[in-house]
Each structure stands twice: as structure tokens, then as C-alpha cells.
Design goal:
Elements: E1 5-9, H1 14-24, E2 28-33, E3 46-49, H2 55-64, E4 69-71, H3 76-89, H4 97-104, H5 106-115, E5 123-126, E6 141-145, E7 155-157, H6 160-173, E8 179-183, E9 188-196, E10 201-211, E11 222-227, H7 236-249, E12 255-264, E13 267-274, H8 282-290, H9 294-303, E14 317-325, E15 328-334, H10 336-341, E16 347-350, E17 357-358, E18 369-375, H11 378-391, E19 393-396, E20 403-404
Parallel strand pairs: 1-2, 1-4, 2-3
Antiparallel strand pairs: 5-8, 6-7, 6-8, 9-10, 9-12, 10-11, 11-14, 12-13, 14-18, 14-20, 15-17, 15-19, 16-18
Helix pairs in contact: 2-3, 3-4, 4-5
Amino acid sequence: MGKPVAIVLGGTSPHVLLVNKLHERGYYVILVDYLQNPPAKTAADEHIQASTLDKERVLEIAREKHADLVISTCIDQANSVCCYVAEKLNLPHPYSYETSLYVTNKGLMKERMKKYDVPSSPFILTKSVSGIDWEAVSFPCVVKPVDCNSSKGVHRADSVEEAKPFVEEAIRLSQTDEAIIEDFCPGDEIQVDCVALDSDADVVMTRSKVKMQWGEGAVLNSVGSVVPAQIPEKLNPELKRIAQNIAKGFGLRNTPFFYQAIVTDDKVNVLEFAPRVGGGLSYYMIKNFVGFDAVEAAVNSFLGLPINRNYYLPEKIYRTCLLYAKPCTFDHIEGMEELKAKGIIKELFITKAKGDVIDGDMRSSNRVGSCVVEGNDIEELQERVSQFYSHVKVIDIHGNNMVILPN
């Protein structure tokens, strides 16, 4: 073909941008995704329907296609497969396959975080409900699969009876048949977007997660984020110290990463981290709010090229509003275009197509749309967010409004 070949693992919407950036660099791009028509398919030169989690199949494809690069920028498990294949074929990659295992398994991750003085909550690991010493579990607790993407299978439990079915679900969803039970840490959840440099780590942007109550045993998820994070400025040195310890403990160099944490009073408790670009609106937020091109940085990281450090503090206060729907067959969203025309919202994104089935679970893969709102102060921001939620409608194929409004 006369072009270098890049294999992109995962056809998610954020990977459309990755495919385009690889085209700009002269690559012939092959997309690997188990879906027949993933969002990034039309952007790629070729699509192979295969699981991104099957590392031996991906290795086989990379050999057959004489790949020069195997890359994924926003999917944890796929990043691990990239590193595995790259090591087998002596291709460029941002960190070792061994490191990728530590960052895709929450149990291994938390053990290493403890070793390198990254504050985190106590936890236990289990492969069966019967093997748990419930006397050692503090309630409330959070139950998760140790190695799933997105927020799938993440629940809060307030009793043993409530926790048991969640543990069974987490084990079932886990690739290694293992669940992690963590002490629940009350407080404000934040995300800290960072970059690991050659001998240091820097904080690029912070955001506060906006939480929503959603039924008993709800999936712990957010309905948006506020940038910058609404926390005391005196915590900034601690945020940077944690970033530096994560980079040191996991051997990260020249790569973007982010960590999620709970802030309680003046303490920061890390939930988990990932050496990749965040999904959803993360790329848009970092690029437009602080000037950091995270996808470009991720590509440079894979290729061993320097990462551009030209980022800045946010000039306004920003909020993303994530939109979910009750169980339905999706048709369209009403109200968002009008709000954008009036200047109430800055940007809008539709993430579902007509005919898509929504099961009502509050996880990122069920998100139907989102928007960006900005304000000169928190009061103006909140007023515009209120206008958004009071006007937007999610319409199903029967003409019903199925939007879930935050309470």
C-alpha cells in the first residue's frame, strides 16, 4: 500500500478522532471491533470484526497486516492488548505489558498504590461470595469487578444482604472471575487529568463529578463534571504529589493519564487511575478548556515522541451535562439545538442513533447525549444547567419523553 499500517482497537466514538489523526500522519488505518457497525468504522480504511480483548487474535491480525502500530487511546483493556502485541512484534508502545496488567486489574493497582504512598481506601478481593469474611467488610461498601471497562457492575451496598448479589454480579462480569470490595469513602468525587513526563508528572486539569441518586443499589455514576474541580486550592500540591507517585510507582513516562479520587475535608482518597485518555467528552474538555490535545499526546506516547506541554488554566467555569433515558427504543432528542442557538449551551453531542435500544442502566454506554455549558461564575453556570434540563427531551419511537432528570 505504500503506507504504514496502524491497527486501532475499539470503534468507540472518541476513536473517530484517533483514526483521523492517524490519517493525518499518513497511516492506513484498520479498525478492530467486535461490533458490525461501531461508530469509528466509517472513519477507518478497513474494519475487521473481532474482539479487542482477544490478544492472540489481535496478534494474528497484526502479523497478517504487517502492522507498524497497534493503538488504543481510551479503553483500558484494549490498551493492555496493544502493549502485549507490541512487545511480541517489537512495535512502539507507551509502557510495558506487565504495567498494563497492573492498571487494568483494580486489585493489583491498589496493592501497588499502597506501596508507593498513593492514598486509597481499604479493600478485599474475592472469587466467591462464600469465601468472604463479612466481619472484615465495613459498610457502606462499594462492589466492583476487578477488570471491567466503564462503570459496569459498580454498586454501593449498605448491608451483607445487599452486597451478596452485587458480588455475584461483579464476579460474573469480571474476566478473571474476581470482585473487589472497597470501603465506601464519602465526599466529593474528582478526576485529575495528568501527564507523565520524562522525570516528573504534571496536573493538566481537574474536574468535580456531579452525582445523581438512582434507585436502590444504584450504579455509581455521574451526570456531568465541573471544571475546574470545586475543591480548596490548598489541595493542589497534594494532587500533584499523588500524580508524581503514580507515575513513579507504575513506571509511567511520556504518557497522559488520569486518576479519580474522593475529597473529604482536606484529604484525597484515590479510587483508581488509568494511563490513557478518558472516554466520552474528556478529549473535548481538555482540548477546549485548558488547551491540551490529549489524543495527540497519546499518539506521541505510543510512538515515543515528546508530548507538548502547552496547556493553561481554564478561563471560565465549565460543566458537562450527561443525558440518560428510561428503557426505550431511542428516536431523537428535542430542545438541544434551540438551546445552543440561544447560547444557553456551548456545544452538544448525540451518542445514540434512531432505533438504538436503551436498557435504562446508568452507565456510560447507555448515554444518549451530552452538552457543554459555560459561565463566568458558578451561579451563571447553574442557571444555564437548569435551563438545559428543563427544556431537553429524549423521545422514543412512540413519541414519549423518556429523559431521566437529575434530582
